[in-house]
Amino acid sequence: MTILHISDTHGQHTKLANLPAADVIVHSGDFTFGGSEQEAIEFMQWFCDLPYKHKAFIAGNHDMCMYGADKIEGLPENVHYLCNSSVVIDGVKFYGLPMFMEDVMDGTYDKLISAIPDDTDVLVTHQPPYGILDGGEYHGKQDFHYGDYKLYAKVLDVRPKLHLFGHDHNVYGFEEHFGTVFSNAAVVDSHYVLKKETPLTYNI
User: Fold this and answer.
1) 52-80 tens-digit pLDDT
2) Any idea which fold 2-203 has?
3) Domain coordinates in residue numbering, the chain
């Protein structure tokens, strides 16, 4: 199975060109910029029309209009919105954990991290795990980490084959640690300008 990973398109999805072939395309959140319902609808229309056999996406912290929408009616059978939920595609279990600031602030997010299933093959989150593809500048502060400690510990415990995320616009690429390939596919930089990077694909 070939998986194409994109993230943090922030309303600029239609500018993505020459996306490579894959069996599954995964978007790990922040498909909107302002979090409006109209932005989300436009993204989903584009995403549903992409020529991939299977498609999966989660919400990021910018996608506020998705808060409380655990399921989306009317999506094609091959398009999966993962909201603290999973889907098995050709024997591979994908699990998606969105990032909503309401959940982060009231402690729900930590509980949702703890609930990630142990048999997850491909984990899709918006936030990185602490210390992996999560470092950059934040309002003048250097060496700022966007990642989460509890998420790092959970991934270390679950050991998925792939952990797909974004959120940190300063880092793009992949690393492998303790048998898991970690991928940050944020396609815009810190100024929300599309980066000219090679699309990230993985075979599992």
Assistant:
1) 999 999 999 999 999 998 889 889 999 99
2) Purple Acid Phosphatase; chain A, domain 2 (3.60.21)
3) 2-203
Sorted by sequence, the CB contacts under 8 Å of residue 38 that are 6+ apart come out as none
CB environment 138-167: b (16+ within 10 A), e (fewer): eeeeeeebbbbeebbebbeebebbbbbbbb
Dig out the tokens for 43 from the structure.
């993204």
Token pair for residue 79? 């398009």
pTM, two decimals, is 0.95
Q: Given CA atoms 96, 100, 101, 107 in this order, what sign does their dihedral have?
A: negative
137 pLDDT band (50/70/90 cuts)? low
Q: Is the dihedral of CA 77, 24, 171, 39 positive or negative?
A: negative
State the pLDDT at residue 142. 67
DSSP string spanning 93-157? EEEEE---HHHHHHTHHHHHHHTS-TT-SEEEESSPBTTSS-EEEETTEEEEE--BHHHHHHHHH
Count CB neighbours of 52 within 10 A: 19
